[in-house]
Design a protein that fits this description.
The protein is α+β, with helices and mostly antiparallel strands. The strands form six sheets. Strands 3, 4, 5, 6, 9, 10, 12, 13, 17 and 18 form a ten-stranded antiparallel beta sheet that branches. Helix 6 packs parallel to helix 7. 49% of the residues are buried. The mean pLDDT is 96.
Length: 635
Amino acid sequence: MVAEPARGWFGEPGILVARNGSTLSPCFKDLQTTLTDERARFLATDSENALQLDLTAVLDASGVLVLAAAITNLAEQPLYVNALNLTVAVPAHLNELIQLGGRHAMEFQEERSKWGRSVVNVASRRGRTSHQQSPTVFCVDQTTSETHGDVFAVHLAWSGNFKFSCDSVTADVRSVTAGEILEFGEIVLAKDECYSTPNLLVTASHNGIANTSRQFHNYLRSVTPKMSTPRPVIINTWEAVYFDHDTERLFELARRGAQVGAERFVLDDGWFRGRRDDTAGLGDWEVDPNIWPEGLQPLADYVRTLGMEFGIWFEPEMVNPNSDLYRQHPEWVHGTPHQHTLTGRNQLVLNLGLVEVRNYLVEAISALLSQVPISHVKWDHNRDLVGAGAHNQTQGFYELLTRLRKAHPKIQFESCASGGGRIDAGVAAHVVRFWTSDSIDALDRLSIQRGALRVMPPEMLGAHIGAPLCHTTGRHHPLSFRALSALPFWLGIEWDLLSADDHELKRLSEVVAVHKRFRNLFHSGTTAFSDHPDPNVHIHSVITADLSEGVAVIATTGNGSRHLNAPARIFGLAPDAVYRCEVVSLGSKKWALNRGMPAWLESGLTATGSQLASIGLPFPPLLPQSGILVHMERV
């Protein structure tokens, strides 16, 4: 698990430590082993260097193996820990890698590449999980597909800097080494102090990528905060009003949100002191009396009279130079004085390694959470970190969430970092929802959500129905397609409903009702994708645990080369059971011209689970960027 250079390991070191200005070369002996059915613990010492290494491996019921290591300094002199990484062996025939990454508003794009005689590094030094790279790799071979072939998957449960070294050079077997990137001086241990690695989640499958995702989903469902009620449909104000908090407009937006079936109203950025744009106010977490002279209580009360819960946006880890907090405490900013001039989105980062900063944030946030009936906090993080200190920053973030959740146990927290910049299993232990991406373009969301679903369960991924004209891409999509891309996740609405006409509002209420009809299935079932000969065809299915019911999204992202597509195969249903298959209406149907229509579209069809998996469903000739929702129920 921890590769020791002292024993002849020439790849990425498992351990790098120093004391008294000299690099040590640990070699651990005197191994003590404790084994139970699901847990193995290995305790080893290096008497010469006065070190103790504690390794644990826990096989979760989900099939995920959870690995961790801890190093303890047994000497009087301080120990500098520069690296503590975990290494796992990978079957030699898995000669391709799948990575997940991208950019802001286009996260979790899958990249599949050859893994020959090479070392492939996957890393982020941005101080948060990042849009550019997920802490995840899938090791596969050229035959591996969604439902067939071998997969070995690794995910680091950590929200800060990380590195993976995928190595097919150093030894006779392939290996993946993963851990937190530690800058010099970040971890200094006094006598008997300990540094622990983030958990490394490892899972494998002989039955394709979808099976490893199922194992990750089941694991995360067991460790994330529990919810006693269905996940409410959210209406979020950001793309409706941005910073323009006109109170009458927001009251009317709430009314229309309730009219179409929203169950939670979330007031986004712009409510606090001095916040008329993104140049000022961060850090001053008091309601702006110029906009809200009576505070937020009247809006919260009105929202509740409409039958909805009330939520609010914070960005606690950040501060604007133009804020009272920065003017009072410039020393609270993260980084060196030179780095204080490097703003991103006109903001700096607060140093969460300082206890006084954490205490201020807990007190400032709690003051509002205690005054106003708030059910939901959208916690944002809109810039990368520069320089060292990501370890303490990440631990400080976790501590803040822990303290606030303990003080306000009924409030649910959502992780947002310019969209999908902080989505990982580390923060998943503290939040119930992720804002998957700042792009709610329905076409882009198909691939963004597909990548995010490789590790994260669908009920944690926020997906909103936006306006007809997308804010981030300028593309125009019909409501049926916008709904189709969002329905299987934690649904929300991010659309200026005051600009919608009565027909649009009626149709929106109908698709929200469809989500509520299948919400329990979407949020507890087994999610999978199906391969298709046409790469423009997207097939995403969710099946209940008892295999009695399923829903499938069949969509096209662009024009294919054939008039008629191969049927859509749906996997995971009971092979011998018979299912009734029907299209669920999401509005007007628009098919490609001059092509034949499958007869079952109007009257439905029955087929066995085996037939749906081997033959598949013939589907209509879809226009580019359109699709259908199919319900399958055992008869």
